[in-house]
Amino acid sequence: MGCAMWTHAPWRxxxxxxxxxxxxxxxxxxxxxxxxxxxxxxxxxxxxxxxESWARQTAPDFRLVVxxxxxxxxxxxxxxxxxxxxxxxxAIEPLGPRxxxxxxxxxxxxxxxxxxxxxxxxxRLPHTYRYAVEVRHRAFFDDRRSEGLLERVLAGVGxxxxxxxxxxxxxxxxxxxxxxDAWVKxxxxxRRTAALTDRPIIRYxxxxxxxxxxxxxxxxxxxVTEWLREGRSPTVFIHTPDNAxxxxxxxxxxxxxxxxxxxxxxxxxxxxxxxxxLF
Length: 279
Hints:
Number of helices: 11
CATH architecture: Alpha-Beta Barrel
Order of helices and strands: EHEHEHHEHEHHEEHEHHEH
Number of strands: 9
Distance between the termini: 35 Å
Strand order of the largest sheet: 1-2-3-4-5-6
Number of domains: 1
Low-confidence stretches: none
Structural class: alpha/beta
Mean pLDDT: 96
């Protein structure tokens, strides 16, 4: 279980101690959740020393789903990005087993005609890592042939298809600035619940109102329960437009799954946001 980030202003002093030095932020987040989306790497390849710090702050079984830089996926569109890819792979090497999957998020314009490029790119990747692809072109959701072709490309290299479930967000008009911003920026695609591998990954986006977020994730509770009973090991990321309560929502989702599958390990006990007092 995890969130879209490990530090967020609305969490400071409320869920997480504040202030926290950079070398303690991921460690403290990891007392709440045991996975996190590595979104920061989309904007720039981190220094290797930064990644070494991430590794020091987390246990080997902590899961980071690390996004490839946009220079590879969006600017070069997987073509001629060998140097950028080498730099990225070298930078994240200290994560070791914490790199649960490398996340290839493709732009909305990357469609069925580009599947040959994706197939060639995936075949050239080192076998050291697992890979997961997120697509946003509507044809992959609306056209069965395009969907099947993509599934075959991914299955050929053992890669997963990451669904970004925004159905709840778009179910009714936005009611806050954060929701209005999400309406503009997030993809409007159907919900997809099929897993291709034994390690499926879900990105779920709810609403700022907790009751709407919880109601919207009901289908996922059943799907994740089924996957666990099949022997799969899913990773679930909970988002809301403002993410103010994402930490507690992630733990609530986990609790609902454990109520159905009690053998799932509990999440860690969170560190208190404030130090204990004598009175």
